[in-house]
């Protein structure tokens, strides 16, 4: 009976548990962009990096009432400036997707919108402009494009790909942008990004003084080779625990750390119990959305690792790898 109750508790946590692997801090003191970055690096991790619309909502739902610096900056050298699809005057139909259990795609017949406006439309009414090789190569995506082509010929369609020289202060390769669709950010003198009270981004001169957002990273990659039990003990003694991943947002954040590991795999905080015949996180969360690589078999004495590509594998818990702790 106790086992049944334990499983039911775990299953109930799949829907209601939310945990952030990093925290944002709004600093009301006004500083230029460079001094804001120095402050964040001294007291936290860095100026805020924004990975998706969930992060945008976290910033927007704060006490911010004015423009505030974030960690995005352009080197703005014209000799290496790369093309944008969102150039003024260029307009096309576009294709959005919904991030559900099964991807859904929608061709939007609004040729009056430029790329940024199309991106904003998709984020308001769906999830985003279609993005990534997996989506573009999917059967459902190509089926939808073929259907639209049969009815309307072969129109150009915006997708969620762009190129630019803007980069994040902490060096992360995060392609997400949330520019105000009605603003033009490609001005030579305005090379630092800020978030506005409505959540959209704009840019301004880096020497102007504004409040700013820092973030504090809550995960750390440990470049020591340990068994799963040794890694668990290390994390609990020096930090909080081996890291748990309960949604796709956390998956992306942890995967960025895994790419920097010295070993092919890194331990995660998930283990298999033969008694209950299930996988669970050391934080007592049930595994709700597993990201297993193909052909992974359950067996006693197994724990979970992540490869650099983000896929999860099942390894004997006495093997030794780098690991990721939650702070």
Distance between the termini: 34 Å
The count of β-strands is 18
Question: How large is the share of residues in beta strands?
Answer: 25-35%
Helix content: 25-40%
Which spans of ≥5 residues are poorly predicted at pLDDT below 50? Answer: 1-18, 77-90
Shape: flat
Number of domains: 3
Q: In angstroms, what is the radius of gyration?
A: 22 Å
Major sheet: 7 strands, mixed
- Identify the CATH homologous superfamily of the largest domain: Mannose-Binding Protein A, subunit A
Report the order of strands and helices: HEHEHEEEHEHHEEEEEEHEHEEEEE
Question: Any idea of the CATH topology of the largest domain?
Answer: Mannose-Binding Protein A, Chain A
Number of distinct helices: 8
Structural class call reads alpha+beta
* Overall CATH class of the largest domain: Alpha Beta
**What is the level-2 CATH architecture name of the largest domain?**
Roll
What is the overall pLDDT average? 80
Domain C-type lectin: 24-86, 100-215, 213-326
Keywords: Receptor, Signal
Organism: Dissostichus eleginoides
Protein name: Macrophage mannose receptor 1
